[in-house]
Amino acid sequence: MYDVRITAIRKADYRDLQVLYENPIEHACDVLEGQSWVSHGGARPDGLCLSAWDSMHWFVQELAAGRGNFYDGWMRNPNSALISCNDGFRPVSFLLERIDNTQQA
Q1: Tens digit of pLDDT for each residue in 16-63?
Q2: Parallel, antiparallel, or unpaired: how do β-strands 92-99 and 36-40 relate?
Q3: 27: which residues sit within 8 A by CB, 6+ positions away?
């Protein structure tokens, strides 16, 4: 099994949609752009939002198992995927990258 790096690369905030459709909430997403985690053996890393994990776990587990090249060449790097969480008001885009464990000391 491989490790997979998960990096938040973009976070949007659609205030117009929040005003129109969202019930007021006290706590929103804590993820920051540039924040990263490492999944070991395809498991959810501590501190990673469960809702975001629900959106990406299949891709993380596939990369951890050594598979990739999703959708026949979708990503330039076949050992990666770009996945967004399912929050339509504050979506976060995550870059998933398989880590080559053979090069680790």
Answers
A1: 999 999 998 888 888 999 999 999 999 999 999 999 999 999 999 999
A2: unpaired
A3: none
Q: What is the pTM of this model?
A: 0.90
For residue 86, give its domain range: 3-103
In total, how many domains does the chain have?
A: 1
**Cα–chain center distance at 102:** 23
Strand 3-11 relative to strand 36-40: parallel, antiparallel, unpaired? Answer: antiparallel
The answer on pLDDT for 104 being more than 90 is no
- E strands along the chain, which residues? 3-11, 36-40, 80-84, 92-99
Amino acid 105 reads A
85 touches 96 (CB < 8 A): no
C-alpha 42/C-alpha 31 separation (Å) is 20
